């Protein structure tokens, strides 16, 4: 048997298990030019929340009662395709299914002997590319500057902070638990870290952690955390607006203070960032990430949840901060 997970209802506010539906279906047969894939790992990502809503965004919304898609790693279990052999592992945007067929478009082979398969969904995938390209294309961190990262213990944030250390920055992370704050400092070498859930005054905490102000802010969360960071930006600061998870589940327009006065008085740059806009730079960025990983300058951290049934819950848990590093589901 085969199973697929459909978007059954568009979530209102936080996603619920009842927004998803597991449906049994036949394992597909393949024709000439096709491969049969068995899913190995599924990436769950905050941006999928946006696709579950109807509104226009940079990626089309999911259709109701159709399978959800996300980044995934799969094994070729049958092949009638010249480019793929049985036993190959591939990465690409795949449907939340145990088995699916493909003509191979948009899939690329990954080498299970060079890195753990799940790493191709994280540090050697979109996550790593987002971190390195957001920093190098917009953040432009210089030695001695202060880099603040929100969502710092997550997939993108943990890589951003580590790259900041490679670049010689003072790195300050913002995360949601004491355990994460400790991990940032002891495992990833952050200079300081703030638990936004237990800090009563974020502005004061940022001022204390950034005595020389903030030169680069890599924003993964938006909302009141980012409002507090903006108050401390330096002349010519660069703000990479990568994500806004704190407001993805809002049902009305969020209230934030105006950014203009802070940008004007510091001549700062605040720029939205979509990693796919930099696709031409992926190969070079990937070489850099692989090299740092091989040299031990970057550490890979993941939260691996087991079981196809757990995919919706793992996705929902991103909004509860249950992951450290990249959240993936092993099928
Ligand atoms: N622009 C792009 O091209 C691009 C590409 C990839 C990702 N992104 C964005 O980058 C951000 C991080 O993505 P990721 O894949 O690395 O996810 P992630 O950080 O691994 O997971 C999400 C984390 O967000 C934090 N969080 C959840 N609710 C929050 C809230 N209300 N306020 C503050 N923090 C909250 C949680 O950590 P705590 O325990 O610390 O709360 C959670 O672990 C997301 O906003 C995502 O949409 C953008």
List the helices and strands and how they pair.
Layout: E1 2-7, E2 20-25, E3 35-43, H1 48-52, E4 69-79, E5 89-95, E6 99-102, E7 108-110, H2 126-139, E8 146-150, H3 155-166, E9 170-175, H4 178-186, E10 192-195, H5 202-209, E11 214-219, H6 223-230, E12 233-241, H7 260-266, E13 269-272, H8 282-294, E14 302-306, H9 311-317, E15 326-330
Helix pairs in contact: 2-3, 2-8
This protein binds NADP nicotinamide-adenine-dinucleotide phosphate (NAP).
Oligomer: single chain
Q: Provide the list of bound ligands, each named once.
A: NADP nicotinamide-adenine-dinucleotide phosphate
Rg, nearest Å = 20 Å
The tally of beta strands, per DSSP, is 15
Helix content: 25-40%
How far is the N terminus from the C terminus?
14 Å
Low-confidence stretches: none
Order of helices and strands: EEEHEEEEHEHEHEHEHEHEHEHE
Q: If you had to describe this structure to a student in words, what would you say it looks like?
A:
Helix 2 packs across helix 3 and helix 2 (126-139) crosses helix 8 (282-294). The protein has nine helices and 15 strands. Strand 14, helix 9 and strand 15 form a beta-alpha-beta unit. The relative contact order is 0.15. It starts with a strand and ends with a strand. 25% of the residues lie in helices and 27% in strands. The structure holds NADP nicotinamide-adenine-dinucleotide phosphate. NADP nicotinamide-adenine-dinucleotide phosphate is lined by residues 45-47, 126-127, 130, 151, 153-157, 175-177, 180, 220-221, 225, 242-246, 273-275, 318-319, 321, 323, 327.
């Amino acid at each position: 048997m085969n199973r697929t997970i459909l978007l059954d209802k568009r979530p209102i506010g936080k996603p619920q298990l009842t927004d998803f539906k597991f449906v049994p279906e036949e394992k597909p047969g393949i024709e000439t030019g096709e491969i049969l894939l068995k899913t190995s790992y599924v990436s769950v990502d905050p941006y999928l929340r946006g696709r579950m809503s109807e509104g226009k965004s940079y990626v089309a919304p999911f259709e109701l009662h159709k399978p959800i898609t996300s980044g995934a790693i799969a094994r070729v279990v049958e092949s009638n395709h010249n480019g793929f052999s049985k036993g190959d592992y591939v990465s690409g945007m795949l449907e939340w299914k145990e088995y699916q067929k493909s003509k191979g478009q948009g899939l690329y082979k990954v080498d299970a002997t060079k890195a753990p398969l799940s790493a191709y969904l994280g540090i050697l995938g979109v996550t790593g590319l987002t971190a390195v390209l957001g920093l190098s294309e917009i953040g432009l961190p210089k030695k001695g500057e202060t880099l603040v990262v929100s969502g710092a213990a997550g997939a993108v944030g943990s890589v951003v902070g580590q790259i900041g250390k490679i670049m010689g920055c003072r790195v300050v992370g913002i995360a949601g638990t004491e355990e994460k704050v400790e991990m940032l400092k002891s495992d990833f070498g952050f200079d300081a870290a703030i638990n936004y859930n237990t800090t009563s005054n974020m502005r004061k905490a940022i001022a204390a952690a950034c005595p020389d102000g903030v030169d680069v802010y890599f924003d993964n969360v938006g909302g009141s955390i980012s409002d507090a960071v903006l108050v401390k930006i330096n002349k010519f600061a660069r703000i990479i607006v990568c994500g806004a998870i704190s407001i993805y589940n809002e049902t009305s327009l969020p209230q934030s203070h105006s950014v203009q006065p802070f940008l004007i008085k510091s001549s700062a740059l605040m720029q939205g960032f979509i990693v796919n806009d930099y696709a031409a730079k992926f190969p070079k960025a990937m070489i850099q990430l692989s090299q740092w990983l091989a040299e031990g300058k970057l550490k890979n951290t993941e939260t691996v949840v087991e079981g196809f049934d757990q995919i919706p819950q793992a996705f929902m848990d991103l909004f509860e901060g249950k992951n450290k590093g990249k959240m993936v589901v092993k099928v």
